[in-house]
Amino acid sequence: MSATLKDKPGTSDYYGALKSRAAAIEARYRSLTPRSQALFERAGKVFPGGFTRDAILRAPYAPFVVKAQGTTMTDADGRRITDMWFNATSLPLGHAHPKVVAAAQRQVPLGTAYFAPTEHELALAELLKERVPCAQRIRFANSGSEAVMMAIRFARAHRGRSLIVKFEGSYHGSYDDVSWSVSPSPERVGPELAPVPVADTAGLASAEQRVAVLPYNNPEVLREYVARNHDSIATILVEPMANRLGLILPDPAFVRAARELCDRYGIVLIFDEVIAFRVGYHGAQDELGVYPDLVTLGKIIGGGFPVGAVAGKAAILEASNPDHASRVAHAGTFNGNPMVGVAGLATMSELTPEVFGQINGLGAYVRQKLQALCEGLPLQVTGAGSLFKVTATSRTIRNYRDAAQADKKWEQLASLALLNEGFMLTTTLSGCISAVTTHAEVDAFLAAFDSVANA
Which strands make up the sheet holding 430-432, listed edge to edge? Predict the structure, then answer.
C-alpha cells in the first residue's frame, strides 16, 4: 500500500486531523452513554480503576452491555451496537445462538458442574481430536492462559529443560513465563536482532534461564540462536497468527524453520491457536501446512463459556497419566465442565467447512474494501480468515518493531468514533466476522470507517 498521504484540507498531518477532534469525539460518547458513565463511576468503588478485565479498557470508559443477540449488543443506555469483535473472537456464531442457548438450557437443570467426568466433555474432545491435525490427546483447562501454562509445563517435563523461546510482541495470556516483551517500550527493547526480555507487568520474577525473546518472522536469527542454545531450550512458542502484531500470518519460512529446528534438537514446538484456530476449519496449522507438537486452544471451542485446552502428541501429554513415572499434575475445579461441553460441542458442530467458507469470504471482503478506503493513507490493513485489523502506520508489518510504529492515539480515537456510530472494535481497530454477520452490516461498518478515516 502506498505511504503517500492523501491531501487533507488545512493540515499535512493525517493523524492530527482526527486528533484535533478528540474532545468532540469524547464529548459525543459521554452524551450517548450517561448510564454507562454512572456504572463506571460505581465500579470504581469496587474495582481498581473501575474495571476487572484489562482487555476491555478504553477511554473514557467502556459501554456497559445489558444483552446481546446475534451481532447486536444493547448497552445500558439502550443503544444498539453492532459487534465486530465478539468477546475477543470467542463467539463465531454471534451472541446467544439458538442451538447454543438450547444446549445450555437443557443442561442447566441437570447441574452445571460435578465432581465427576461427563460424556459431554468426551464428545467435545473427540470432535476436537478429529478437527485438530496434531491432536492425539487433549486436556481441558479454563482459559487460554491456563492452556499455555500447561503446554509449557508439559514441554518442560518432556524435554527436561526450562528455557522458553517466545517472540517479541506475541501475547500468550497472563501466565508469568510468557508475560515478557508483549508490548515493550521502544527505549527498553534492545537491538532489533537480539531483543532484551522486557517485563510486561510488575510482579514478575527474572526471565534469566527461563525466557528468551527473539524477533518474529526472522528464521535466520531463530536458527542462529537455537544452534547456540538448543541444549537449554524446552520449547519454542509461536503464534501462527500474531494477534497484537496485526493479526498477521507468519512467513512460511519462519514456521518451517521452527519445525525443522525442533525436529533436529528434540525441542517441543507449541502453537498458540487460542485465536488462530478460527482461521480455518482445521486451524492455522493446517492453513500453514506446519504442525506443532502441542497446540493451545480456547475461545471458540467453549461456545461462550470460559475454556482452554492443550492438545498434541500422545508421547508428551501422556505424562499426565497417573501411571507416568514423572507425572505432570493438572487439576481444575471446572476443567471440562458440562456447560462447556454442551455449548462447545453445539458451537463447533455448527462450524462446518461451508460456514468457514462463508465467514472467511466475508472477512476477505472486509479487508479488500478497507484496503481500498485506506489507499494513499498511512494505514495498513491486515488479517486472515474472518479477522481484520487497521494499523495506523505506513510501514508493512512483519514484526513487533514494525507494529510498534503505529499511532495508537489515532487508533483509539478512531475506535471511539466508530463506537459513536454504533460499531464495536478493539481500541487498536481489530475486528472479526461471525457466522451471522451480514453483508449489509459490513457495508454499514465500511461506510462508518470511511467517514472516520477520510473525514
Answer: 380-382, 387-391, 430-432
